[in-house]
Amino acid sequence: MIESTTSDMTLEQTLPFTAGLKVLITSDEIQDELVSKLADLEVEVLWQKIPESLKNLEETFTFRHVKPAFDFAEEQGLDLVIAIDSNTNKFSVGIRKSSDGGFMLLNVHHTSLILAKLILENQVALSCKKSIFITDLLDKLFAKYQAPMTTLAHLSGPLAVQESFLKAEKGETLFITENQEIQLKGQNDSLSYLLSQLLIAAKKAKSENQTLFDLLIGIYQEFGFQREKNLAVSIEEPSQKAFFKKIIARLKKKPPLTLGMNEIVSIEDLSNGTLKNLLSGRIVPSKSPIAPALQIQLSSATRILIFPQGDRINFFFTSQGRQINKDNFSTISQQLDQQVVKLIAEINRLGLEN
User: Fold this and answer.
1) Pairing with 314, which of 113, 203, 247, 302 sits 20 to 30 Å away (CA)?
2) Is 111 helix (H, G, I), strand (E, B) or coil?
């Protein structure tokens, strides 16, 4: 089902569109109020029911969820795709890499960086509280605007029941959880406000024959490119739990000099707030939040956060790449992802050693 926001005309009657921004919202439930608010920005907005909605609070939008919307958007010449989950107000954004190029799905790190930059450029009184599993490029961005940033060891959804969210100070605070929830505390309608910021920026970019992808690349060119990837491994079985406990103990007590072809520079023990430089032997206070986790810094400019949580263990990789541009973005991202796969194999090897 596709609905136009501007009249009762059929889809065929409303297409083709004018030169303005054209947006598709795909969700499990009709978003009449939201669609109406966004249409007030003088953009063309359509709604389409998403074929597969999110099943639980931890699930996030992936390419599988939005592919039908991407296919439709490409056929109809639309510029932007926004996927929304009605139960949690989670959203993901699909953007074109060029004005006539294919779609890519922004991850939570991409979306957070773009939104933070847009809001910080327009207002001074903004702070941010984010999960430790969210890109630390946000720290650099907020530091540029001398705006407060807090990284929390535990920040998951739904935000509406999180103490840190409920007790947030007066003023506007951008909250970003590891399970793709982004809210601006202090705004009566956070979802429509955040999406309106994206649409206004996308509309401006289109008038300059660009897209939000150009804005994202600009952020990376200013602050340095990073690729974040979180891999969660089940430790429900006692043997699995013992295996990874052995790995963590080895890294704490007698870490190897290298991990694969990468020299280990430092190991940060978040449980006691210390960071040990393996090259100098010096131990200094950690700047990370207290958590039952380890963080490993490699000479290859890759950082690995090992964080057991309940019946799983998270491996959060932050890999820094060389100078990025629109043409090499995908290639460098894939190369960094391949390095992550190799590092996981090396980490597993530690658990097999006697």
Assistant:
1) 113
2) helix
pLDDT of 65 over the 80 cut: yes
Nearest 5°: phi and psi at 247?
-60, -45
124, 127, 228 from 158: Cα distances, Å: 27, 20, 22
Instruction: Band the pLDDT of 124: cuts 50, 70, 90.
Output: low
Give tens-digit pLDDT for 140-156: 999 999 999 999 998 88
Q: How far is CA 6 from CA 77, 189, 201, 332, in A?
A: 18, 22, 21, 42
Long-range CB contacts (within 8 A, 24+) of 281-289:
288/132, 288/151, 288/153, 289/132, 289/151, 289/152, 289/153
DSSP 177: -
Q: Are strands 126-131 and 149-152 parallel, antiparallel or unpaired?
A: parallel
CA distances from 281 to 206, 293, 349 (A): 53, 20, 25
Helices (H), 15-157: 32-39, 63-76, 108-122, 137-144
For the chain, domain boundaries: 225-351
Q: pTM, whole model, 2 decimals?
A: 0.91
